[in-house]
Structures are given as structure tokens and as C-alpha cells.
Amino acid sequence: MITHGSLFSGIGGFELGAHWAGIPTLWNCEIKEWNRNILAKRFPNTEQYEDIRELKNPKQTKIISGGFPCQDISVASAGKGKGIKGHRSGLWGEMYRIVGEVRPDYIIIENSPALAIRGLERVLCDLSEIGYDAEWQCLSATTFGFRHYRERIYIIAYPNTYGELSSGMGNSFIDVERFKNSEKWSKVRSEFRVDTKEMVFRYNEWGSEGQNIITEPLLCGAGDGIPDQVDRLAGLGNAIVPFIGYYLFECIKNQISLKK
Questions:
Q1: How far apart are CA 1 and CA 207, in angstroms?
Q2: What are the pLDDT digits (tens) for 45-58?
Q3: Which residues are tagged catalytic?
Q4: Residue 194: predicted pLDDT
Q5: Of 37, 87, 166, 187, which one has the greatest count of Cβ atoms within 10 A?
Q6: Phi, psi (rounded to 5 degrees) for 259
Q7: Distances from the Cα of 174 to the Cαs of 186, 245, 253, in angstroms?
Q8: Nearest alpha-carbon partner for 28 in 65, 57, 62, 60
């Protein structure tokens, strides 16, 4: 059975993607209380941890995912470019430790595209030291049919004994062209699209001028605003696009079937 453990879980973007792919999340780890409340409500059967620095030897899972903090890496943040050695982004070291303890078959890592110049070499070297190869690619929401850009770098790592399955670094697992040309993906993607006529708010998309678009209710009256505004917007802003998570889990499932 394929199982999943989630680090730096936020509001559960990877958990939701795993759920769509039919993969249960056995445990997650998230330090912010508001996010943990969301996770507990949406994934009540998942064991929850709070501080990754205190998490030791969690249950064995086949996949571990995590988007470690990007504040010291992203060019748009206040981290002043300290990179992966920064106070927050340096928590990669904790994710690396847990990966070494659990030894999953697959690791999914998400971060700002700036990781390519502010820490990717460190991540790859750390993984190599404990016997993992990795492939990576920058993916944006627009590639998957959504209106907002939201580009992120995604890394999939796996034991170096799996190397014979790879056709080359960069896109043997993360094959976006296969996604674009597949009837299966087109059908699944259409099922998760949201009809704007049924929406009350659209608060996580960006217009061509870089201004946030908030769609007012179609019924008469004024909007009541965004509930739990600061926490909600922060949760959405830090979350991955769940459909991309779903796609990556399906890529892994495909590789597992090839191994058999």
C-alpha cells in the first residue's frame, strides 16, 4: 500500500493531492495552530505533529512530501537572500533528518524557483549522501489549466537503485508533455475546474496588471469579506496548488507500476 507523510503541511495542499490520488496521509507536521485546525478538520484520521524540530522517527511511509520555508530563498520575501542557511529556510536540515530516519521510497520537495540559485545544490548533495537521486522542474498553475501563474520548483527524489527507470535528469518522472497530451489528464483536470458562476469569491488569482482579483457574489448585496482574513490569506499564499500535488503523486504511482 502506498502511504504518505507530510512535513511543513500548511493547510494540506499535498494531503489533498494525495487524497485525490487515493493515497492516505498517515501523519503531518505543521507549526501554525490555525493551519493545524484546518488539517484536523479535513484529515481527521491523520496523526498530527506540531514542531518538526521535535519530531523523531515518525511512522514508515512510502512517500514524504514537504515545502520547507522559502522566506530566506524567495526573491520576493523579506529573507534578504540568506538562502538555505537562513534561519527559516535552514529547516531543510530537519526535513533531511526525518527523510534519513524514515527512508521513504519517494520524496517530494517544493520551494521557490529561486532555490535553483540559493540552495538546490545543498539539497541534492544532502540527498545524495544518503543514497537518493533526484529530478526537478519548475511548474506553474497555468500549465495545468488554471488562471494564476504561481510557479514553484518541485523535486522528486528516489533511491539511486531506481536509476535504471530514469531517462535523464529533469523530466522522466515530471513529464508535463505527457500530461498535456493525455486524455486521462484532460478529463481529470476538467473535473477539478471550478465554474466561476458557482463561486462566491475568487481571491487567489492575479490579473495581468498584478492586482488581486476578488469576485463579488453573484447574488444581490455586498461581499462580507474573507473570513479569518489574515490567517486564511496566509494559508492560501503558502499552500501549493493541490492539483499539482495530485499530478506528482500520479507520476510516482506510474513509476511504481513500472517497477512491478
A1: 42
A2: 999 999 999 999 99
A3: 70
A4: 44
A5: 166
A6: -65, -30
A7: 16, 11, 12
A8: 65
Residue with cell 465554474: 195
Q: In Å, how far are 80, 200, 219, 229, 236 from 222, measured between CA atoms?
A: 40, 11, 9, 17, 23
Q: Which residues contact 52 (CB under 8 A, 6 or more apart)?
A: 7, 8, 29, 31, 91, 94, 95, 98
Write the pLDDT tens digit of every residue in 55-114.
999 999 999 999 999 999 988 665 566 899 999 999 999 999 999 999 999 999 999 999
The pTM score is 0.82
Amino acid at 240: I
| Antiparallel, parallel or unpaired: β 63-66 and 47-49 | unpaired
Are 149 and 170 within 8 A, CB to CB?
no
SS (H, E, C) 62-84: CEEEECCCCCCCCCCCCCCCCHH
The count of other CB atoms within 10 Å of the CB of residue 170 is: 13
